[in-house]
Amino acid sequence: MRQNDSLTSLVLSLALFFSLSLSFSQGVLSNISSITDLGGFDPVWLFLVVGGVMFVLGFAGCIGALRENSFLLKFFSVFLGIIFFLELTTGVLAFVFKDWIKDQLKFFINNNIRAYRDDIDLQNLIDFTQEYWECCGAFGPEDWNLNIYFNCTDTNLSREKCGVPFSCCTKDPAEDVINTQCGYDIRAKADSEQKTFIYTKGCVPQFEKWLQENLTVVAGIFIGIALLQIFGICLAQNLLSDIEAVRESCLFT
């Protein structure tokens, strides 16, 4: 049973690692470093490192169980414990510095808005986010003034001037075809009229609202992941104990 669990972990780790490598090598979210404020660090590498760590842990657990290798099992157990501790620390820090995280989320969304037309993957990500959360901009439609195509300045000659992307528009159940021009000139109208056609709430407040409404589900997922990690550590330690017990019995026979 332990060998099967370790093999499953290895297969999943390999799949994650190589799928991430393949995805990023093809340019998916290739411009993500340009919309983050991480001193030139490309977050894509973070995903690759996470995939690599999972691969190494899965490999150590698999080979350690198959070959009954104490060193690999200890390595698997210790590093799984470190990951659990880091996750716990991250959760505590996220709660303590929630205002800073909120500011970073605003910064991230606003940078996405500036680069909306620069990358098709980024554009699809923003549209999906605004449609799913039923929001527009970081804190409201006026955030789209940051984009050179949607701002209301006199120098803007774009047809999308004073508008918003179609993903900001409220959906009419009777319409089967998406009207990609529904947001044109909408911000030139009064606020009361805008509410009829577009979402006026920002994505940051909508995300906070969703998180509060689904706090039990989110907490359950994280607790489930933590329990699985603890279970893996316990299995590794149990197997280590069995191996050491067998070796000790062999010494006295």
TrEMBL record:
<keyword id="KW-0325">Glycoprotein</keyword>
<keyword id="KW-0472">Membrane</keyword>
<feature type="disulfide bond">
    <location>
        <begin position="135"/>
        <end position="168"/>
    </location>
</feature>
<dbReference type="Pfam" id="PF00335">
    <property type="entry name" value="Tetraspanin"/>
</dbReference>
<feature type="signal peptide">
    <location>
        <begin position="1"/>
        <end position="23"/>
    </location>
</feature>
<dbReference type="InterPro" id="IPR000301">
    <property type="entry name" value="Tetraspanin_animals"/>
</dbReference>
<keyword id="KW-0732">Signal</keyword>
<keyword id="KW-1015">Disulfide bond</keyword>
<feature type="disulfide bond">
    <location>
        <begin position="136"/>
        <end position="152"/>
    </location>
</feature>
<dbReference type="InterPro" id="IPR018503">
    <property type="entry name" value="Tetraspanin_CS"/>
</dbReference>
<dbReference type="InterPro" id="IPR018499">
    <property type="entry name" value="Tetraspanin/Peripherin"/>
</dbReference>
<feature type="transmembrane region" description="Helical">
    <location>
        <begin position="215"/>
        <end position="236"/>
    </location>
</feature>
<keyword id="KW-0812">Transmembrane</keyword>
<feature type="transmembrane region" description="Helical">
    <location>
        <begin position="78"/>
        <end position="97"/>
    </location>
</feature>
<keyword id="KW-1003">Cell membrane</keyword>
<dbReference type="GO" id="GO:0005886">
    <property type="term" value="C:plasma membrane"/>
</dbReference>
<protein>
    <recommendedName>
        <fullName>Tetraspanin</fullName>
    </recommendedName>
</protein>
<comment type="similarity">
    <text>Belongs to the tetraspanin (TM4SF) family.</text>
</comment>
<dbReference type="InterPro" id="IPR008952">
    <property type="entry name" value="Tetraspanin_EC2_sf"/>
</dbReference>
<feature type="transmembrane region" description="Helical">
    <location>
        <begin position="44"/>
        <end position="66"/>
    </location>
</feature>
<keyword id="KW-1133">Transmembrane helix</keyword>
